[in-house]
Each structure stands twice: as C-alpha cells, then as structure tokens.
Amino acid sequence: MFKKLSLLFACAAIAVLSSCSSKMGAMKSEYFTVTPAVLEVVGSEVPVTIDGKFPAKVFNKKSVLTVIPVLKYEGGEALAEPVVFQGEKVRGNDRVISYDNGGSFKTKMTFDYVPAMEDAELYLRFVVNKGSKTYNLPDVKVADGCIATSQLYRQTAASANIAIGEDAFQRVIKQAKEANIMFLIQQTNLRASQITTEEMEELKATMADIAKDFENKVIDEVEVSAYASPDGGVALNDNIATGRELNTAKFVKQEMKKAKLDGYVDSKYTAEDWEGFQELISKSELPDKELILRVLSMYEDPEEREAQIKNISSIYSEIADEVLPKLRRARITLNYQLIGRSDEQIQEQYAADPKVLSLEEILYSSILTEDAEEQKEIFNTAIKLHPTDYRAYNNLGVMAYNAGDYNTAASYFQKALAANSSAPEVQLNLGYLELLQGNVSDAEALMALGAEAKAGDEALGNLYIAQGEYGRAAALLDGKATNSAALAQLLNKDYSTARQTIDEIAEPDATTHYIKALLGARTSNIAYVYDGLKAAIKLDPSMAKKAAGDLEFTKYLQDATFQSILK
User: Fold this and answer.
1) Which helix (H) or strand (E) holds 42?
2) What's the CA gap between 70 and 177, in Å, rounded?
3) What whole-number distance in Å separates Cα of residue 451 and Cα of residue 406?
4) How crowded is residue 241: how many other Cβ atoms within 10 Å of its Cβ?
5) Distance (Å, rounded) from C-alpha 119 to C-alpha 149?
6) pLDDT band at 530 (very low <50, low <70, confident <90, very high)
7) For residues 60 and 25, is the Cβ–Cβ distance under 8 A?
8) Which residue from 39, 210, 27, 238 is spatially nearest to 126, judged by alpha carbons?
9) Are the C-beta atoms of residues 464 and 152 closer than 8 Å to each other?
C-alpha cells in the first residue's frame, strides 16, 4: 500500500513539473476570429483583420511564438507579416502572454492578390522557439477565400465605351463677314472713300458669292451698329448716331439689292460709345489711362464723365486725336450659313471619288453605315488621304478593342500616338489596355493624360474599381447605364441602384447578366441568380466554370437548379 501511494505522489509531482516545462500548447481555430469571415479582394489586395485570444495554461512561460498568416492556394502560398509573442520568463521586446491568464491581440495585414487566390484558404502557421530549440505547431485554418467580384473590372473595362476620335463635320457652319465705315466728327454722310475700302469690297464680294451659291450659302441677317463718340452733348450725339444708322442701313439694303439678295437688316445705334471708349483706353499707352479708367468707374452720368476727363488737360488732346475718331463709326456684320453636303451626297461622293471630300466628311461617313468592314475601309481611306491625322488610326484601334483583338488595338493606338502624342482619346484607350492586364498604376498614369476625352468618366470609374475606391466609382458613374456603373454600385452595396442600372442597359452582355446573378446572391433573390446565370452562360459558356468557383454563390452550391444551370 505504501509503495502504491509513493508511486502515485511521484507521478503527480512529475505531472506538475511537466506542466510548467512542457512544449507550447496546441493552437485551435476557435482562438482566432477573422474579418471578413470569407476573404474578399479590394483593389489589388486582400485585406485581413485577425482577432486572437490565447486561453490560460496554453502559452509556455519560456517560449517565443511567431504567428505567420499564410494564404494557401493552388500552386503557391502568400505570407503576411508575422506577429511575435513571448512567455513571461523570456527576455525580449515582444508582446508578453501570461501563462495563467492568457492574452489577446488584434492585427491587420494585406496579401497581394493573384487570380489563383479565388480558391484559397487562410491558415496560421506557428513557429516556437524555446532556448536553442525550434519547432512548429500544426497549421490552423481560420478562413476561406477569396471573393473576387471586384476583379470583374477587367470584364467591364472590356465592354466599356472607349474613346472615339470624333469627326468635326458640321452640316451648317455659321459665318460672319464684317466691315466698318468711319465718319468725320459730327457727320452722318457716307464718304466715297469709306464705301470702297478693302474690307468693304470683301463684304460686297461675299454678298455676290452667296447670291451665286444660294443652295449652299444662306443669309441669316445683316446687322448694322452705328455709334457716336462720347464728346459733346448727349442730344447731339443721339442725332448723329441715328443719322449714321439710317444712312448705313440704307447703303446695305442697296448693296443687297444689287447682289440680288434677300435678307433682314437689323439696325441699331449707340449715342455715346462709352464701352468702346473704355476698351480703347485700356489698350492704349496713355500715361494717365488708369486715372481715366477710375473716372469711368466713379461716374455714371455721361456729361460728368466727359467733364472730368477734360479736366485731365495734359492728355485730353491726345484722346481727341487718337481715341475719339475710332469711335465715330458704323459696323456692318453679314451673318450667313454654309450648308454642307447631305448624308446621301456624302455617300455618293465617297463612292465616286473620296478625294473630293474633306477629312471631316470622310470620318463622318463612317457613322452612315453599320457594316464593320465598310467602316474599316473608310478609316483606311482617311489614313491614305490624310496620314498625319490620328483619328482614323485610333478608331481602327477601337474596333479591334471591341472585337477583343487587343494586340491589333495596341498597334493602331501606337500609330495614332505617333500622329498626335497629346491626343486624349489615344492616351485613354492605352490606359484601358493596361487596365485589362491588371497594370493599375500604368493605367492611372495614361488615363490622367486622357481625362479630357468624352469617355473619361467610365474609364476613371473602372480605374477606381480596380483601386478599391467603390464609392468614388459609383458617384462618378451615377446615371450611366453601363456594366461599369452596375459593378461599382454592387461593390458599393447600393443594390437598389445596381438593379435599376442593370435593367436600363440597352444591350446586356454576359458580364451584365453575371452581375445580375451576383446581385441576386447578395440580396437573396434566387430568381435573379437563376435568370442571370442562364443568360450569362448562354452568351459565354465559360461563365459556368467561373460561377462554380465563385464564393458569392456558396449557399447555392447544393441547389439542384443551380447545379443544372452550370451543366
């Protein structure tokens, strides 16, 4: 009996000693909480927050524990920054965990995303150092991942409306021809020398040209604006300006009659041209011009203005000689329209001889057909006739891009860039190509140069998605019925707006329908999941494989209807 008790006490003593000197206790998954529970790609990273709690009696007093987050995926693994802890009896600078009480921690980390991480698992790896000995504890799985919905930006960028080099064709071009008649002081009669000046002869010639080409040139109206200089009494100047208006308008009507032109003559007068006076003074080299301008701003009454300016006797004679004569005038403005070729005429002329057409007409003709081969031929003609213009090269690149031929697109964009290195459309489109390859920083630099292009908002929206800036992307794309907008709204968790956007997309493609299915998964709308996936897979069978591995659909994986859709 005594021997049995002795043996019992000896075993108990050994157990106590071993408890204080044994290896580190095994780690368990319940010690750790991961946020998010299913990892998700944000921008080009996978962000993770780990909250850990070591229970009592687990952490050895003499050990150092290095915790290494490891994201395991097929073909590799990624390691995050390790976190180091130490026992109470270790001399070091790491966080101390009590053997009796345990301890908690919180750490944030990111993994650089690679596509293979869509099927990944997050583990914690534990390396223990105790004295001179090092050993590993078993890895512990703490999370699944990754949801990679944000990476659909490559698909939305592929279906985006990239930048066209637009034509500047105008069917109707407004033109104006102007001539001035100068008058002597206090005179209203038109002098022969003034109605035969070079600019007046050009005005008459324009009238004659319009009369000859009445099918392509049409008069809007002729404006006559007569003025008197701001010197002398207001009543006198009013009479003078009125006389100049009447005589000038009469002259214009006579000239139009000679040219056999019909048109409305709109005439008006200004009794004292203070506005013109101020402009001439501002542009002059007069020594006291600032003083004169101050007088104009201080006094509204014309007579007071004139009196104050005359008081500046040192320069008034110069004003009378150089400024006032230029204000005694009547301005004639002939407003007319150039009427360009009709669509039918442009097409007929292109077929007959495109060299007769302007570059703008050739480029415009590309929108008069929906045949892609005809459009290509038109752009190649534009290049042949106008090789230094970038737009045709760019537009051939756009056609290749839309067809998924990105190498050809890149070649054309480079040719466009050689023709015009600062063209914003080309810079933007090159940025799209970089975005398709996941080169986000390069895309950002190019898109910044192309921000003025008309397609700039959608481009920047896709860039913001790629950068994880979902709110900015959604705000920029608000009101646009595109895949890019729908994806941004989905990622920004604005599900009602995303649904509205999807419904408004005029020509939904496979990406549109897949986003619809994702929206259904996130809002528990199973009809949306089914309908979206059916349509997506019909247009692009590869979507079935994508959906099968997409963690957004995890809760539907055992659903018979879901499985049948993927087959």
Assistant:
1) none
2) 76
3) 21
4) 25
5) 13
6) very high
7) yes
8) 27
9) no
Report whether 328 contacts 184 (CB < 8 A). Answer: yes
Mean predicted confidence (pLDDT) in 340-349: 93
Domain boundary pick from 289, 324, 339: 339
118 and 187 share one domain? no
d(CA 470, CA 464): 6
Q: What is the DSSP string of 403-435?
A: TT-HHHHHHHHHHHHHH-TT-HHHHHHHHHHHH
The verdict on 194 and 330 lying in the same domain is yes
- The neighbouring-strand residues paired with 177 are 334
Neighbours of 120 (CB within 10 A): 25
pLDDT band, very low/low/confident/very high, at 15 (cuts 50, 70, 90): very low
Residue 48: φ, ψ to 5°: -140, 140
Specify whether the CB–CB gap between 99 and 85 falls below 8 A.
Answer: no
Specify whether the CB–CB gap between 144 and 167 falls below 8 A.
Answer: no
Q: By CB neighbour count within 10 A (0-12 exposed, 13-18 middle, 19+ buried), where does 230 fall?
A: buried
Q: What is the CATH number of the domain that holds 66?
A: 2.60.40
Going 491 to 494 to 499 to 505, the CA torsion angle's sign is negative
Beta-strand relationship, 133-147 and 38-40: parallel
- Comparing CA positions, the residue from 442, 495, 482, 440 lying closest to residue 463 is 440
| Residue 34, token pair as written in the block | 């991961």
Half-sphere exposure in the Cβ direction for 409 (13 Å, CA) = 23
Claim to verify: residue 6 and residue 87 sit in the same structural domain: yes
Q: Any idea what the CATH number is for the domain that residue 313 is in?
A: 3.30.1330.60
137 and 190 part of one domain: no
pTM for this predicted structure: 0.74
Question: Residue 115's pLDDT is what?
Answer: 87
| Alpha-carbon distances, residue 40 vs 9, 143, 150, 495 (angstroms) | 55, 11, 9, 18
Residue 217, token pair as written in the block: 């040139």
CA distance linking residue 522 with residue 503, whole number of Å: 17
Average pLDDT on 233-241 reads 94
